[in-house]
C-alpha cells in the first residue's frame, strides 16, 4: 500500500537532498493527471520572422533587424504558448514546461487566438486552466537541451479521456 504523506513539492530545486525527480537522457513517456497550470503566464511573444523571444512592449527584433518601426500597425510579433504545469503520476509530481506545439493540443488553438479571446473574456486563462485540470494525459518528457532550464520539457501530449475537449472549445461553450 502506498501512503504518500509527502507534501507536493512544486519546485524540486528547493529540496536538494532528494534525487532529481526523473533522470532521463532520452524522452520518457508516462501517464499522469494534470494537477495545475500556471495561468498567469501562458504565452510569450516572438519575432514573427526569426521566432526569437521579444522583450515586452517592442516589436523590433534586435536579432534579424526586422524593421517594424516604420509601420507599427503591421504584425512583427506573434505569440507562442509556454505553459508551466504540474503532472501527477501514482508516484510523484512533476513540474514541466510545455511549449507551443504540445500546448496547442490542450488549448485547441494558437496562442494568438487564445490571447485574442482572452482580451474580451478576462477570465479565459483561469477558466481554461481549470477546465484542463484533472485531465488524464500521456506525456513524453525530455531533459531540456539548455542546461540552465529547470523544468522537464513536454515533447508531446495526448489526452486520454474519450470525451476530451480542448480549452478553447470549453470556453466557447461557456461564454
Ligand atoms: Zn527576428
Automatic annotation (TrEMBL):
<dbReference type="InterPro" id="IPR012340">
    <property type="entry name" value="NA-bd_OB-fold"/>
</dbReference>
<feature type="compositionally biased region" description="Polar residues">
    <location>
        <begin position="1"/>
        <end position="17"/>
    </location>
</feature>
<feature type="region of interest" description="Disordered">
    <location>
        <begin position="1"/>
        <end position="21"/>
    </location>
</feature>
<protein>
    <recommendedName>
        <fullName>Replication factor A C-terminal domain-containing protein</fullName>
    </recommendedName>
</protein>
Amino acid at each position: 500500500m502506498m501512503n504518500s504523506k509527502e507534501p507536493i513539492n512544486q519546485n524540486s530545486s528547493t529540496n536538494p537532498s532528494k534525487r532529481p525527480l526523473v533522470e532521463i537522457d532520452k524522452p520518457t513517456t508516462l501517464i499522469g493527471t494534470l494537477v495545475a497550470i500556471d495561468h498567469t503566464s501562458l504565452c510569450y511573444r516572438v519575432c514573427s520572422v526569426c521566432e526569437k523571444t521579444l522583450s515586452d512592449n517592442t516589436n523590433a527584433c534586435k536579432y534579424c533587424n526586422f524593421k517594424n518601426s516604420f509601420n507599427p500597425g503591421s504584425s512583427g510579433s506573434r505569440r507562442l504558448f509556454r505553459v508551466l504545469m504540474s503532472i501527477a503520476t501514482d508516484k510523484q509530481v512533476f513540474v514541466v514546461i510545455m511549449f507551443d506545439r504540445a500546448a496547442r493540443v490542450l488549448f485547441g488553438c494558437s496562442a494568438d487566438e487564445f490571447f485574442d479571446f482572452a482580451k474580451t473574456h478576462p477570465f479565459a486563462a483561469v477558466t481554461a486552466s481549470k477546465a484542463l485540470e484533472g485531465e488524464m494525459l500521456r506525456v513524453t518528457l525530455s531533459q531540456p537541451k539548455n542546461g540552465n532550464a529547470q523544468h522537464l520539457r513536454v515533447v508531446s501530449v495526448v489526452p486520454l479521456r474519450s470525451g476530451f475537449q480542448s480549452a478553447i472549445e470549453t470556453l466557447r461553450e461557456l461564454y
